[in-house]
Amino acid sequence: MTNDTLAHGSMRPYIESMVGIKEAPKEMIDSGLYYYTFTQKLWQQSLFIIKGKDYRITIDPLGNFRGGHDISDTLRFMVRNSRALRIQVDLDSNFSFETFIYENQAKMPRYIAEYATQTGTLPSEGRVKVSTNGADILDFGVTMGYLSYSPRKNLNFQLGHGKQFVGNGYRSMILSDYSFNHPYIKSTWNFGKGKFQYSSTFTQLSSVIRLPEATTPEATFKEKFGNLHYLTFKPNSKFEIGIFEGGLFRSYVDSVGTVPLHFSAYSPILGTSLALNGFESENNVVLGVNLSYQIAKKVQLYGQVLIDNPAESKLGFQGGVKSFNSFGIDNLYLQFELNHALPYTYTTSETDALQTWSHMSAPMAHPFGANFTEFVGIAYYEKKKYFAQLKVSSGIINSIGEGYSNNLLYADEVAAGDMDDARKIYNNVQELYVGHRFNIKTNLTGFISIRNRVHAEKSRVTNSTFISVGMRTNLNNLYYDF
Hints:
mainly beta, Porin, two-stranded antiparallel ribbon, single chain
């Protein structure tokens, strides 16, 4: 999707009133002729639509159902059973409400099951219960939603449980949707005749470490407070620059318990977190710059710089290019991206380990954590609702000992004796996804996919070749190329 307007497109999810529904790409419009109410409901509309003069309510059952086999893992059959419900409400022109509820059971390729067992979570989907009978069945629920109020077209307030993505790429080195949903309060202001947009988000984030004492059967987790600001400037339809500041503030200390937040955690002004805390205080502050430039009508360049602590070379970088209707072929989309992070980026000292740039044990930026270089290539083609996508991710991760320098759950100080235990990890994932899009409103697709993953280091090589077929509503991003 190219952007020929002043709509700011580097923070997702978008606010419809600020992007403008009239600017939706033509690819999202189903122009097919359906002559019966049943076929219109099935292929073109929401299942239930209730509307009046000043309100509109839609209700859709959703799901993700697939079965498959990992041919690299003898007799390991895979299945996923996700049932979901989405409710959307629009009142007048300035208030909206949306909620998703998912319930899931799944048996996944072994490397994903091992990740879930080790961390207690799934990428993008949060906490899971792992069966104890050796069947590797994962049971988990997902909820997300928001209340949105726009007193004016250029001003929006949200209260929700979800996540955000900053950037124009497949990955984000600043803030991505790889980690799980979290509660937040967000305000967004569009000003300067649409050339500037400023958002301020306050959120409650968590570790997966439980409090030592509790009055309930399961103690709550040790938490931290997030303060995220993003200012974008778009002088014309081709160029956009964004400045990001994120602060993760200490709210719990092992020797004391819950502690008051630093007063700067409540500031809605970009720059105050860094000015009042610095890069290496008890509160973890990062800065980011996001750039995009449309060099031709169908070609966009983009990039990011992430600054954790320049004095210690804690930095991250991204560069990429997107091509729409490539080589004169309608609906052929190509993307190439390079991501790189230096050692210990996003991490903190052992005494401030809770403030690492993570949520529910998952990185809040790139899935690899830190100390890596990755290439991503994506080719996508669609015609008459049939589509094919080939995605390649090839990365080199450098690690010390059990995970120092790359794993964000480890401190930024190397344990004695581990310095000489350097490891180089090669992670390569290729996925071919072919299918048919049945319904634009719910993004209901039937598909066949093949995902091959090779994870190699000096001590071992593991391979997973997962072939599956299924039906799903693609309304949230799921990342298994790690």
